Every structure is written in structure tokens, then in C-alpha cells.
Amino acid sequence: MDIQKAAAATGLALFLSLVAPRVAPAQTAFNPACHPFQNLEAKHAIDASCGSAAGNAHTAGSPRALQNGAKNNFCAAGPAVDITHDALLQLQAAAESVPGYATWGRTNLPPSRDPFAKMAGQFREGMLVRYTGFVYELHAADTSNGESVNCNVGGSEANDIHIAFVADPTDPECSSITAEMSPHFRPKAWVARKMAPWVSAVQKHSGAWVANPQGTRLSRVTGQLMFDAAHKPCTDGKANSGDPARASLWEVHPVYSMEVCKTTGSTCADADWERLDQFLSTATATGTTPRHHKATPRAVTLNPRP
């Protein structure tokens, strides 16, 4: 009889295991050691579901995990050092002499971050830097399938905001420097579609890329200097297949803060710099919409985006 009872209990347990709702594995929250956004910090769904600094690169110490970890460093220590466009081009030239550079790409990342963290000269990966320039174009990146660093979650809220900076608003995108706003704890005001009309040199308007007069104002970003080995810079003024247009693989990534000049022009007085969220709030409160210049060959044909 005991044997029959045990068998019945086993059968019942098996039945319940098949019909009972399955419980999803516990999710780990993203918990950075540092919080550079301070009172602007906002939690997003990805902060609860993509908890590792390595994203979904599950093998600790793997090249992918190391690069993802570098992208999720919110603890670059200050004070911030100003870095110029030319300095970032020089860093690119120096990186190209590192053994293995020619073979690096999306599927073959460097096995160590040491070459970038130990660069000769003033700048290296992990430093807190500030870059000033004109925003050529910005957009929410990799929204279809996401990136490994963001656990391949789709959608604009779960992915980086890619910002291409140029030294002059008439410069081509292939001369640009990249800054990336991570989705983790990103301030609410940092939304690509709300930022672009007020700071981008070119915008998509009625299906065409056109010049934007608001893009003649300077912006500056402060954040970690890091090297993105998954790409290659432009060749002969053209972006390589699958790579964003850029002149250097050194990025400000992640961005900790962004400021916008209240005036247009090639210089900005100290008193005219305004925090991005404040600038957007003031611009929106005016109730005006930035007007577009007529399309120009430069804006339309240089590097059209979908």
C-alpha cells in the first residue's frame, strides 16, 4: 500500500510540474558602483533585466565581456580633461599600430583592454574626458535587435543614443567622433527624437536629409574615453560596410553629461552653456519648432540613413 501511495504521489507531482505555470528565472538588476547622472538618473526596464556590466556576454574575461564591461564603466574619475578632435585622430593612429588591429572587428575583439588602458601620452581608456564639437547627427541605435552590451533587447529605450560629432557643421560624417549615451539610468530628457531637432546639423525631413540651422550651435559631452574595436573608421571618405561613419574608434562612451550652447556659432561663452535637459525644456517651452533649410547635396547624399 505504501508503495502504491508513493507511486501516486510521484505521478501527481509529475502532473503538477507539467501543468503548473513555469516561473521565469530571476532577473538581476543593473547596479553600477557609481552614479554620474546624480539627480537626473532615471530607471528603465533594461536596468531590471540586463544586470551584468558584460551584457549578455556570459563568459567572464572573454573579449566580448571585456569590451561590454568597458562600455558600461560609469566610474571614470575626474576632473574631466578636455580632449580635442585632433587628439582623438592621433589616438586612432596610435591604436592602428597595436598588434592585431587589422584583424579586429565585430566577431574578433581584442583579448585584452591593456593596449588601450596603457596608451602612451596623455589620454587612455578609462579617463574622464570632455569633448566639444557640433553634432552632425544623432539617433537611437540598434533598435531592431539590440546590442550584446544591452543584452540584445530591442527598442530605443533599451539601446544607446549614437551621437556623431564634427569639428564644423559643414564637415562630412566620415570626419566625425562618436559619443554614446547608454540606456542604463539614462536621464528622461535624453531622448534622441527630442534632441535631434535642436542640435543636429542634418535631419531627415519629408524623406530627405536636409541641413538644420539649429545644428550650428556647439555641444559638449563629458564621459569615459574608450576604444570600440568592433568597427573600422571610414576609408577614402566612405564608411565601411556595416560600420558607422567615423574618423576614430575612440569614443566618449558612456556619456555622463551633455551641455548645449544657447547661442549658435563657432564659440560659446562660459555663461551660455546649458545642461541638456534644461536647454531642451527651455526650447520646448517656446512653442516653436526648428525650421529646416532646403536640402543641399552635402546633407542629402553624404551618408543617408534608413
Average pLDDT works out at: 88
Low-confidence stretches: 12-26, 291-306
Helix content: 10-25%
In total, the number of domains comes to 1
Strand order of the largest sheet: 2-3-4-8-7
- Strand content bin: 15-25%
Radius of gyration: 23 Å
From the helix content, strand content and strand pairing, which structural class follows? alpha+beta
Count the helices. How many?
8
Count the beta strands.
Answer: 9
Name the shape in a single word: globular
Cα(first) to Cα(last) distance is 72 Å
How would you describe this protein?
With 306 residues, this protein is an alpha+beta fold. It has one domain. Helix content is 23%, strand content 19%. The protein contains eight helices and nine strands. The strands form two sheets. Strands 2-3-4-8-7 form a five-stranded mixed barrel. Strands 5-6 form a two-stranded antiparallel ribbon. A hairpin with a 2-residue loop joins strand 5 and strand 6. The protein starts with a helix and ends in a 5-residue tail after the last helix. The C terminus is likely disordered.
